[in-house]
Amino acid sequence: MRFLLRASLAILLLAAILSAIAFLLPAAAHVERQALIRKPAEQIFPLVNDFRQFNRWSPWADYDPEAHYEFSGPASGVGAQMRWSSEHPNVGTGSQEITGSESNRRVDVSLDFGAQGTAKAYYLLTDTDQGTLVTWAFDTDLGNNPVARYMGLLFDRWIGKDYERGLARLKAIAETGSLSQSAEQQ
């Protein structure tokens, strides 16, 4: 009986320590990747400002070719919306809406993953001497949920590779008009 009491106290103490540590972890997660595309922003912007173009370069489009997509609102720019549903765990169900659009410079997106929460993303197009530097970023508030804060430590690993793959595909489409083999394989 004494062993069970000590084991229970040890488990409670460990849970308390892990919970306390969680509140020292960041309350938000940020993921960001960049790619230099050797084309002017005017040729890239329509690909990120129109959800009907998204699956041409999306890193998630190939996970489930049977995924269902619905589009609403304007064809592009502020108010354009896309909903998706898939049985594939890497795709899932959710929606995104363009909430800000500055021609050839920036697109802001609001994401809703249902029970998994909400997030914000943006595409930033910066002119350089070599072309356009495209930044794709993701931000989400983890709140006061200790489990979410621990999970937040993994977001860069989980999402970063998909963002890299998507930017490689976007680069291939913007520079050549179609996906290269290397962009398809990433």
Q: Reading side by side through the largest sheet, how are the strands ordered? A: 1-7-6-5-4-3-2
Structural class: alpha+beta
Examine the coordinates and then state which fold CATH places here, giving the name of the CATH topology. Alpha-D-Glucose-1,6-Bisphosphate, Chain A, domain 4
Q: What percent of residues adopt helix (DSSP H or I)?
A: 25-40%
How large is the share of residues in beta strands?
25-35%
Beginning-to-end CA distance, first to last residue: 56 Å
CATH class: Alpha Beta
**Got a strand count?**
7
Summarize the structure.
The chain is α+β, with helices and mostly antiparallel strands and 186 residues long. It is built from 6 helices and 7 strands; from the N terminus they run αβααββββββααα.
Q: Could you describe the 3D structure shown?
A:
This protein is of the alpha+beta class and 186 residues long. It has one domain (2-185): START domain (Alpha-D-Glucose-1,6-Bisphosphate, Chain A, domain 4), CATH 3.30.530.20. It is 38% helix and 32% strand. α1 packs across α4. The mean pLDDT is 88.
Strand and helix map with partners:
Blueprint: H1 2-22, E1 28-37, H2 41-48, H3 51-57, E2 68-72, E3 81-85, E4 93-102, E5 106-112, E6 118-128, E7 131-141, H4 146-152, H5 155-176, H6 181-185
